[in-house]
Structures are given as C-alpha cells and as structure tokens.
C-alpha cells in the first residue's frame, strides 16, 4: 500500500475486534510518529500507551473518556506534547503551545496513516477529560493532551464520509 492509498482508505473506526496489538506493531506506529517534522526540530510529542487492563480500568473508573468505544479499543494512545520545550519566538505570532499542537497533530497523522497501512483502525477523539487522564497516568501538568487515538483491528466497515470538492478548499 502506498501513502495515497492509505490516505484514501483511512476511516474513523469505533468498533474493534478483541485481538491484541503486538509490541512490534505499536513500535511501528510510534516510529512513524517519531519521523514527522517539528518546529525547530523540538520533537515535543509524547505518547502514553494504554493496553494494560488495570490501567484501562483506572481510566474508566475516573471517567476519562466520554465515548465508551474508547474503552473498548485494545490500545489507547494518549497523545501529548510539552510546550515548554519550544523557545519563545519574538519574530512570529506563534506561541509554544501552538507549535506543540501543530507538531503533535502532524506526528499523529503519520501514526494514523501507518496504522491504516498495517490494517488497523483508528479515530481521533478530543472529547476527553484531560485532567482525569493526567491524574491517572501521572502526566506532567504542563503537557497538553489535545486528543487520544483508540487503535484496534476494525470490527466495522463504515461508509466513507463525504469530502468537499477540491475547488471548495482552494482559495
């Protein structure tokens, strides 16, 4: 599968088979994220891997996720970044927090496309309770958590969502 095909077939998957994901495959996903570009090559993105039932149960008990399908995924990737790693800029209107959001989004998109290539389903989930996640996983307070990525072997094949025509996104 080439990158174009991965882009074209990627879908948001919310139902997963009970099949576990190997550490080797998880490392493939994280390696794809690691290779993404970042502002000033800071690479502030961090990923907390949740596959252990005990940890998942703590997150469930804390009510960390609004959508129950997140809890059903065999793997939950908590996507974080540390804005404090970026130098303060005086020549552009960007802030360290903005850089962190941008870089994490780029890196996680690489991860999601690699997951697609490996036959895995993913979905970006931003409706989360960040403080509860940080508390359960002991994530440093200064980290941002814009979204989490549930990952698993798809147990559904939803129809592709309609996309705007190319002419509609070009200004």
Report on this model:
The protein is α+β, with helices and mostly antiparallel strands and 171 residues long. It has a single domain (3-154), classed as NADH Oxidase (3-Layer(aba) Sandwich), CATH 3.40.109. Helices cover 40% and strands 14% of the residues. A 4-stranded antiparallel sheet has the order 1-2-4-3, with helices on both faces. Helix 1 (3-9) packs across helix 5 (96-117), helix 2 (23-34) crosses helix 5 (96-117) and helix 3 (53-62) packs antiparallel against helix 6 (130-137). The longest helix has 22 residues, at 96-117. The relative contact order is 0.25.
Features of this protein?
171 residues; alpha+beta; NADH Oxidase; 4-stranded antiparallel beta sheet; 7 helices; 4 strands; 14% strand; globular
> What is the CATH architecture term?
3-Layer(aba) Sandwich
State the helix count: 7
Largest sheet: 4 strands, antiparallel
Radius of gyration: 17 Å
Tell me the count of domains: 1
Shape call: globular
Provide the CATH topology.
NADH Oxidase
Q: What integer is the average pLDDT?
A: 95
Helix content: 25-40%
Give the SSE order as H and E letters.
HHEHHEHEHEH
Task: Name the CATH class.
Answer: Alpha Beta
Low-confidence stretches: none
In terms of DSSP E residues, the strand content is: 5-15%
Oligomeric status: single chain
Structural class: alpha+beta
Measured distance between first and last alpha carbons? 31 Å
């Amino acid at each position: 599968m080439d990158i174009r095909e991965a882009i074209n077939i990627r879908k948001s998957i919310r139902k997963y088979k009970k099949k576990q994901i190997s550490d080797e495959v998880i490392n493939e996903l994280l390696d794809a994220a690691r290779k993404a570009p970042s502002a000033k090559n800071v690479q502030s993105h961090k990923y907390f891997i949740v596959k252990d039932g005990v940890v998942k149960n703590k997150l469930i008990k804390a009510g960390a996720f609004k959508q129950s399908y997140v809890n059903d995924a065999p793997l939950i990737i908590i996507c974080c970044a540390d804005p404090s790693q970026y130098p303060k800029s005086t020549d552009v209107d960007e802030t360290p927090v903005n850089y962190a959001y941008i870089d994490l989004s780029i890196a996680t998109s690489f991860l999601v496309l690699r997951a697609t290539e490996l036959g895995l389903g993913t979905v970006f989930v931003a409706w989360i309770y960040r403080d509860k996640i940080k508390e359960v996983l002991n994530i440093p307070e200064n980290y941002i958590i814009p979204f989490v990525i549930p990952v698993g072997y798809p147990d559904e094949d939803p129809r592709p969502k309609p996309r705007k025509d190319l002419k509609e996104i070009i200004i």
